[in-house]
Write a structure and sequence with these properties.
Elements (H helix, E strand, L loop, with lengths): L1 H18 L5 H8 L2 H9 L3 H8 L3 H6 L3 H21 L2 H7 L1 H21 L6 H18 L10 H16 L5 H7 L3 H9 L3 H28 L1 H19 L3 E8 L2 E9 L7 H27 L8
Antiparallel strand pairs: 1-2
Helix pairs in contact: 1-2, 1-6, 2-8, 3-13, 7-8, 8-14, 8-15, 9-14, 10-11, 10-13, 13-14
Length: about 300
């Protein structure tokens, strides 16, 4: 029961991250140390599960997926999404007080980067190369600008696959990918008006991306564990460019809501209450991750990255 409650709490953290532009649930799963478990849970929905469903074998179908992990995590994610959009309007706070919200998440991500490097022994030149590759990927993605793209079903399918891929890859936001592809407004409008011509290809793309990319990432972690973690960590470092709390941010209005499309980091112009509070939240986020890591190390010895 306690483990289920912990998973629900972690789901709350992931759901909160999904509300923040530029931050993904995959980032938070990585910070909380459940990333590989999340990939395994997604992989548990396989062809055998589908075969059981087709045959009408409900017992066989529900016995395979990791529902003990997925359900409490999903409850937490949905609860956070509802709470931070209905009760506490976090999307509005991001626009009105971005320095504070992004300050906290900057500290969380910075802390996770430090923790991962702590668990990598004998850092070598090759490790630096792989980390730089990840940083480059992260920077290339977060500095892209929206483009004009087609409305064809094949491209909506592609958008769904790419967006869901970004959501489970730490450091990249799925909604930001849709903005880059120039399809955020189109797809959100289609979902809001229950346009099946948009929903079906997008959902099929998302399901396809989730099935294949989760397996690809798991394969990489199994075969190239150290290198994959270093690249992911590099992507997290690259994402700090967009998460830095002090930015010149550009927004566009989509369905009467402001959506972030571009950010340029700057140094704070003055040391005032907002600046000091932002840095305090940044430090708080970093310390929180360190505490979580410490408690995890006490509970069980962390598995070392393979060379």
């Amino acid at each position: 029961m306690i483990e289920k409650a912990k998973l629900t709490l972690k789901g709350l953290c992931m759901g909160t991250a999904d509300v923040i532009p530029g931050v993904s649930g995959g980032t938070m799963a990585f910070i909380l140390g459940i990333y590989e478990q999340l990939l395994a849970a997604i992989k548990s929905f396989d062809l055998k599960t589908l075969t059981h469903l087709i045959k009408g074998d409900l017992k066989g179908a529900i016995s395979r997926p990791h529902f003990g992990f997925i359900i409490p995590l999903f409850i937490g994610i949905i609860s956070a999404l509802l709470f931070f959009t209905r009760v506490i309007p976090l999307p509005k706070l991001i626009i009105s007080d971005p320095e504070l919200i992004y300050g906290l998440f900057f500290g969380l991500i910075l802390g996770s980067i430090i923790v991962l490097f702590k668990h990598i022994d004998n850092f070598q030149f090759r490790d630096l190369v792989e980390t730089i590759i990840g940083i480059t990927i992260g920077l290339l993605i977060v500095t892209m600008t929206p483009k004009e793209t087609p409305d064809a079903n094949w491209f909506i399918f592609f958008c769904g696959a790419l967006a869901i891929t970004a959501m489970i890859l730490p450091g990249i936001s799925g909604s930001f990918i849709l903005l880059i592809l120039g399809k955020y407004a189109y797809i959100i409008d289609g979902l809001g008006h229950f346009n099946l011509g948009i929903i079906i290809p997008f959902a099929l793309g998302a399901a396809t991306g989730l099935i294949f990319f989760s397996r690809f990432l798991s394969w990489l972690l199994e075969r190239f564990h150290r290198a994959t973690l270093l690249v992911i960590n590099g992507i997290l470092i690259g994402s700090l460019w967009m998460i830095w709390p002090f930015q010149n941010r550009q927004y566009i209005e989509i369905r009467e809501k402001q959506r972030l499309i571009e950010s340029t980091p700057i140094f704070p112009e003055a040391i005032d209450s907002t600046t000091t509070t932002s840095f305090a939240l940044m430090l708080g986020g970093l310390v929180l991750v360190m505490i979580i890591s410490y408690l995890g190390d006490r509970k069980k010895r962390p598995s070392e990255c393979r060379t």
